[in-house]
């Protein structure tokens, strides 16, 4: 459900999680390092060392670089259509542990609702 103040809820995912049909056509969040640019698409390497293509509705004004936080919808097992993105500032990106982030997202995503496990 969308919320005026906070927008559409999104599940953080890894590249491996995109293979799961439960994420197809869902709103997600993906964090990774840009490895390739084209005019309306980037390829992002995630913490699980896989590449995901991120497609933009409009051509980019400039090439993207570094750590990026993408919000969009899963179109295919390695393709996200971006609604928006944030370039993580270099001073924050240098200390960001993408591997640990991946492990946390994988753990949380291993259940439909990890917050109610064991209740």
TrEMBL record:
Q: What is its subcellular localisation?
A: Nucleus
Q: Would you name any one GO CC term?
A: DNA replication factor A complex
Q: Which InterPro entries match?
A: NA-bd_OB-fold, Rfa2
SUPFAM superfamilies for the chain: Nucleic acid-binding proteins
Instruction: Provide the primary localization.
Output: nucleus
Which terms are listed as keywords in the entry? Nucleus
What Pfam families does the database record attribute to this sequence?
Rep_fac-A_3
What domain of life? Eukaryota
Write down what this protein is called: Uncharacterized protein LOC113208844
Q: Which organism is it from?
A: Frankliniella occidentalis (Western flower thrips)
Gene name of the record: LOC113208844
């Amino acid at each position: 459900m969308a919320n005026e103040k906070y927008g559409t809820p999104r599940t953080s995912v890894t590249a491996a999680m995109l293979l799961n049909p439960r994420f197809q056509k869902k709103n997600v969040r993906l964090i990774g390092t840009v490895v390739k640019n084209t005019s309306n698409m980037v390829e992002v390497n995630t913490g699980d060392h896989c590449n995901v293509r991120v497609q933009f509705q409009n051509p980019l004004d400039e090439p993207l670089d570094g750590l990026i936080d993408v919000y969009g919808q899963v179109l295919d097992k390695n393709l996200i259509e971006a609604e928006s993105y944030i370039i993580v500032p270099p001073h924050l990106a240098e200390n960001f542990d993408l591997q640990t982030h991946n492990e946390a997202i994988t753990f949380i995503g291993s259940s439909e609702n990890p917050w109610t496990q064991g209740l």
